[in-house]
């Protein structure tokens, strides 16, 4: 009698699989097309031109426009997404969380500054196990998210936000982050934040060494490094 087959261990760090499906409206990346479709319907309900066709789904949520194949799935969605529930709140910063476990993790990492997860290959410590995994993959295993477009010769990116910005600037030319004051659009959210300093004339960054003023924080930091030398 042959011995029973040995079950293969679960692939380590499955969350670091290549994220080929990128949302064109934000900086989120997904490993499955279904997850991207769910993300679009959940977080971008007003941009329906980006919604893919969803065939065979005839049960509609009574509170929103989401469709489901099974009636019980529509009921579960309604109870989870639209029913008001008391969310646990942090006593220090009043931030709310969907579960008590996330609240405990927030207190340990943010307020108690606990770092129980240590890297076995260097001296880095982290408050969350997910951060330790990300550190190991990006720093010690040189993991990179590759561009899903054929013919792209980029070597890859260490985070999905950089990959999403690359796709928008090089391949799709989508600029989803728009300035409310002048209408200028940007590829990255951080570029919009830096641009906002141009309109905010109340906050001026002054160099303590030479008293020179700057409107943008990035320019002030660059000047401060040179001025301190």
UniProtKB/TrEMBL annotation:
GO terms for MF:
zinc ion binding
- Asked if the keyword Iron belongs to this entry, the reply reads no
Protein name per UniProt: Zinc finger protein
Quick check: keyword Nucleotidyltransferase in the entry? no
Q: What is the organism lineage in this UniProt record?
A: Eukaryota, Metazoa, Ecdysozoa, Nematoda, Chromadorea
For this protein, the record's PANTHER family field holds: C2H2-TYPE DOMAIN-CONTAINING PROTEIN (PTHR24379:SF121), KRAB AND ZINC FINGER DOMAIN-CONTAINING (PTHR24379)
Provenance organism: Gongylonema pulchrum
- Residue ranges of domain C2H2-type in the record: 21-49, 88-116, 117-145, 177-204, 205-229
Pfam families xref list? zf-C2H2
Stored SUPFAM superfamilies: beta-beta-alpha zinc fingers
Signal peptide span = none
């Amino acid at each position: 009698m042959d011995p029973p087959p040995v079950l293969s261990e679960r692939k380590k760090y499955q969350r670091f699989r290549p994220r080929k499906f990128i949302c064109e409206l934000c900086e989120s990346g997904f490993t499955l097309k279904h997850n991207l479709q769910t993300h679009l319907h959940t977080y971008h309900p007003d941009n329906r031109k980006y919604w893919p066709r969803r065939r065979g789904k005839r049960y509609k949520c009574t509170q929103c426009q989401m469709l489901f194949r099974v009636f019980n799935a529509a009921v579960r969605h309604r109870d989870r997404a639209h029913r008001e529930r008391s969310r646990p709140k942090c006593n220090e910063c009043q931030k709310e969380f969907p579960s008590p476990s996330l609240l405990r993790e927030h207190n340990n990492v943010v307020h108690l500054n606990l770092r129980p997860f240590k890297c076995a290959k260097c001296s880095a410590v982290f408050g969350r196990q997910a951060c330790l995994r990300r550190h190991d993959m990006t720093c010690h295993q040189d993991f990179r998210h590759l561009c899903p477009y054929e013919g792209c010769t980029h070597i890859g990116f260490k985070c999905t936000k950089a990959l999403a910005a690359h796709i928008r600037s090089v391949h799709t030319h989508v600029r989803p982050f728009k300035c409310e004051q002048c209408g200028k659009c940007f590829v990255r959210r951080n570029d919009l934040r830096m641009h906002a300093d141009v309109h905010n004339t109340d906050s001026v960054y002054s160099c303590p060494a030479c008293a020179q003023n700057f409107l943008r924080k990035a320019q002030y930091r660059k000047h401060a490094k040179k001025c301190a030398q």
